[in-house]
Prior knowledge:
The complex is a heterodimer of chains A (about 110) and B (about 110).
Chain A: E1 3-5, E2 10-14, E3 19-21, E4 24-26, E5 33-39, E6 46-52, E7 60-61, E8 64-69, E9 74-79, E10 88-95, E11 102-104, E12 108-113
Parallel strand pairs in A: 2-12
Antiparallel strand pairs in A: 1-4, 3-9, 5-6, 5-10, 7-8, 8-9, 10-11, 10-12
Chain B: E1 4-6, E2 10-13, E3 19-21, E4 23-25, E5 31-38, E6 42-49, E7 56-57, E8 64-70, E9 73-78, E10 87-94, E11 101-102, E12 106-110
Parallel strand pairs in B: 2-12
Antiparallel strand pairs in B: 1-4, 3-9, 5-6, 5-10, 6-7, 8-9, 10-11, 10-12
Amino acid sequence: AQTVTQSQPEMSVQEAETVTLSCTYDTSESDYYLFWYKQPPSRQMILVIRQEAYKQQNATENRFSVNFQKAAKSFSLKISDSQLGDAAMYFCAYWGNAGNMLTFGGGTRLMVKP
Amino acid sequence: DVKVTQSSRYLVKRTGEKVFLECVQDMDHENMFWYRQDPGLGLRLIYFSYDVKMKEKGDIPEGYSVSREKKERFSLILESASTNQTSMYLCASSSTTPGYTFGSGTRLTVV
């Protein structure tokens, strides 16, 4: 079974600075998808970014980018120019071939200091 | 805008009550999921469904049941609510396209 690990329960960053959230996963599959979801205090879980494993190019969405290291099974999220609205829980998730389902990491709470 | 709607944002119920949490999606998704979210424990899968009238147990099904009579609706049922079921409940749906669409969550308090 696949597992997803987020080793940082909490992180903090100064407004306007850059922060990187870590995620590692374990799988024997070669074709899969990885996701970062954001859950702000309003609780609505929002998709931040998606990476397809067969694509070597790292996904980017505005201030959010990933560092996808397939061999190392690592999928970190970089947030540039952090804003107060980035404060949230962030979940890393894996989607493989065995069932249309996500496997989630335990989450990282990001605090943004003004 | 596609949606997953959870009927209640906050619920307070008494111990022993039968509780229904409703989730409706308008995207014609085949797959629907119920999770509970607790501090320090992340998201834990309770039940899921890949089709109408079909259900599968997740990691923590004890004390819960589900109903999926129509494709768009997936109900979570607490047969006899207990205080240890106080939690945030999240519903999600998906199709064959990877990824979920989530509802906005129901915070249930059992007193």
